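If you are new to this repository, start here. Below is one unmodified record pulled from the training split, so you can see the exact layout before writing a loader.
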Amino acid sequence: MNALPAYTGAASGKTPMQRLWQQWDLLMRYLPVLLMGLLAMLTYWLVRHTPEPVPVQAEPAVRHVPDYFMRDFSVKVFDAQGKLKSEIVGTEGRHYPDTDTLEIDQIRIRAYNAEGRLTTAQSARGLINADGSEAQLFDKAVVVREAIQTAQGIMLPRSELRSEFLHLYANTETVRTHLPVELIRGGRDRFTAERMTYDNLDRTLQLSGRVRGSLAARQTKP
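And here is the target side for that same chain:
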């Protein structure tokens, strides 16, 4: 058996330049694989030598504690013409920054609407939101709207609401409660219900649950 001839450059029939291009083409084929291996090694080295991050300290939860107090105070709000719009009086007030509310003991409120009708409110404890548009009255809450004659000549009688909880909305002139409530109108008509929504702008009263009422007889002129 004849032995195979040894490989020589002359036998391949390729010039040195062709062999160089062949080696370059081979290198370019395997270059992505080499780079991926190099990146994997570099990533492993970084993971092993990178210091562990310092744990971020969680911000402490805001506690429901007052940041300032007021005692035997009175807060008044005036309109652009300098006319008294509302007044809040209390024996002690506590502001809570987490809810931006003001809690008031023995709260008393006076407010005038656009028609000049006076509304007063009082309770053992009250909660006012940041802009004063809502007031929640707790424990023996009473809201009274004084009688007034409108510009159209209509006489609106005095009305009184009593409940253990009343929620007042100043912007919409609405009063709501989910607890038993008593309504006294004109000093003689009485209604009781388990829940109530009173809208002064629409002149509507919604009583729900067990509703009872009594209407006083009207005296007629002879």
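Two things worth knowing about this chain: Helices lie at 9-12, 16-49. Confidence is low (pLDDT under 50) at residues 1-11.
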